[in-house]
Amino acid sequence: MVNFKNIISRLIGSEYLLIFLIFSAAFVFRINLIDQNSFIGDDEAYYDDVANNIIAGSGYIVSHIEALWGSDQPSLPIVRYNPVYPFLLAVTKLSFGDNFYVLKLISVIFGSLSVIVLYYIAKCAFSKRIAIISSILAISSVPLLKYSILVAKENIFSFFSLLMVYFFIKYVKEKNNMYLIFSFVFAAISYLTWPIAIFFPILLAFSYLIYNRMKIKNKLRLLFVGFSIFLILIFPWLIYVFFVVDFYNLLQDIIFTFLPLQGKLSIMHSASINFYQIGVFSIGYISKSFFIIFINLFLALTIHLFSLINPIVYVFAILGIGYSLLNFRRFSIFFLITLFYGFWAGLHLYEPYGHYDRFLIPLIYLFLILSAKGILLTFDNLKKHKWKKTRHFILAILLISILLFNIIKINKTDFEGQGIYDEEIYNYFWGNKIENITISSPTVVDGYHLKSNWVVLPQDSREEFVNALRKYDVDYVIIYPSYFELEKYPKYLFYNETFEDPDLAMVESSDRLGLEWKIFKLKKII
């Protein structure tokens, strides 16, 4: 029989070779999908516009807000459009031109680098074996792949967030105060990328205080230094926003970052979803009963069969969580960070702006580490059973099965959306699937850009756009409702919920998700 243990040992013997292989595999998976999403998302359209205005010397403004919301003046920056991503876009465009694929390549690179950071987090928190398994899981993870091919801030945000976690765990392991300082530095950079990271210092502080609970008086000074560095780094941006916008908007955005708005699920309900699996795996681990573990595996496979999140990964993550609860002192820092982030992100699962899944991207990476821990726990216990000699072979088969499962899901997944990985909500959000959209990347019709689910146009250019659109074989275009008037353009017809004819009412309002906009279809009927 092939000795998988020796083969794996040779492959991972060189750390640099291993890192190169992990990065290369992650990059290949992501670059292979780069053609499968030709849209820039709604918020990303604003970031792109800010970058263009920076290059043009017009300032840090969003110029097309007038056309979208009917405002009398161009919008000035608000805290949800933090500066790291727009300036990165501006530098990229200055270096390579307005090239859509270069922008996507930047996202692919950051997504691949995040897998490397994940490897080092898992290695530092647990072991090299868990780090390798975590990396294998992350390389082909469908939710992570989706965001790696979007021209969006989420990948960059995840990269900086993971670096924050890595340096904090390094601080815990090596007792080097500089690592804690680096952790607060990357927390600040994360905030300057996406304002939801305003809570990161609190996450670090809670974990820090719990870890140093026996000698807290002597450790408060270092925590104060960390908070000070965070505030110093973000202070110029906050001052700029304070003077350009106003204090009320600044305070409102910060508060809304912490609190769920019109949330559809309570935190207790969210927690109860996985409580059963945690309990069963905890009992299974204590009793060493693999029958109980595999019964729960079957149930989880049944429940999550149609989910884009790999159900096998999900099951072993719950095992890792159960073990964490039973052995809290052993690696409490990593589990605390995951728990605090998960608690906060759970509050925003059905946040009204529709980005319920985007908050969870860094958590998915940490979730995969727990899954790797669960996998290794299971197969380490095989030493005591009749599978002792073949457990490495079984582990290899399991990882290959997970990889093949993800590849099958990748081939069946529509990557042309906004990166939503919950199929039920994805289908509800978009209504019936829209076929035959022949305008693709870059989404431009005679100079007019199609920005994801609406068209960004000045008020006086609607007729010109319609005339340009007529030259293309377009069956459907998703648009924002204020751009066209039915009576002005009789050859195009709106489908919306105001029509009594059920054949015309093809698109539902998205009130169930608490969204503030509605989706309309424009169909060419000539």
Descriptive notes:
With 526 residues, this protein is mostly helical. The protein has two domains: 14-423, no CATH class; 432-524, no CATH class. 60% of the residues lie in helices and 4% in strands. The protein has 22 helices and six strands. The strands form two sheets. A three-stranded antiparallel beta sheet has the order 1-2-3. Helix 7 (128-139) packs across helix 19 and helix 11 packs antiparallel against helix 18 (332-347). The termini are far apart.
SSE blueprint and pairings:
Blueprint: H1 4-11, H2 15-31, H3 42-56, H4 65-69, H5 84-96, H6 100-125, H7 128-139, H8 142-148, H9 154-174, H10 177-193, H11 200-211, H12 216-244, H13 247-258, H14 267-273, H15 275-287, H16 290-303, H17 311-326, H18 332-347, H19 361-380, H20 391-412, H21 423-430, E1 444-445, E2 448-451, E3 454-455, H22 462-469, E4 476-479, E5 492-495, E6 520-524
Antiparallel strand pairs: 1-2, 2-3, 4-6, 5-6
Features of this protein?
4% strand, 526 residues, 3-stranded antiparallel beta sheet, mainly alpha, 22 helices
